[in-house]
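Figure 2 data, in text form.
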Amino acid sequence: MGTPELIRLDTEAIECGLNRNHGSGWLVEFADTEATHYLRLVLVHGAVHQPAISPHWRFILLLTVRAASKALPC
């Protein structure tokens, strides 16, 4: 996905109160605007004893960040 879509998803996650491993605005500051980024589903788990609770989806984010004048894959 492109950087604008990634930032949109991150903003939506903030609004929903979801856990993220970076602070608000981090992607805007560091994600390379010209790169393609990848979200890979790693784990889906649910509370078997509480079926009314939706499953939790865990993703790993592969992105390219800017560092000074270079783009570095993370």
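Caption note: The mean pLDDT is 78.
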